[in-house]
Write a structure and sequence with these properties.
Radius of gyration: 20 Å
Helix content: over 70%
Order of helices and strands: HH
Strand content: under 5%
Number of helices: 2
Largest sheet: none
Shape: flat
Distance between the termini: 41 Å
């Protein structure tokens, strides 16, 4: 129980530090960072979907001995 509480504590304070860094900046000046973040999220979603599709296909196969 100690590790999850420590993790939550550190995440909370990391969010506060990030807020302090970005609170006085205008969203227009962060356009490149926002675009990079959006692109990274899209790539992560595509990767997760491909992994899901692959594993779903594998576990939906009735006899996996043919694959191996």
């Amino acid at each position: 129980m100690r590790e999850p509480k420590l993790r939550d504590f550190l995440l909370y304070y990391m969010e506060i530090d990030i807020w302090k860094q970005y609170k006085d900046k205008d969203i227009a000046s962060l356009k490149t960072e926002v675009d990079a973040y959006t692109k990274a999220q899209e790539l992560a979603a595509i990767g997760a979907y491909k992994s899901y599709s692959s594993l779903r296909g594998y576990f939906s196969t009735k006899d996996v001995r043919e694959i191996i």
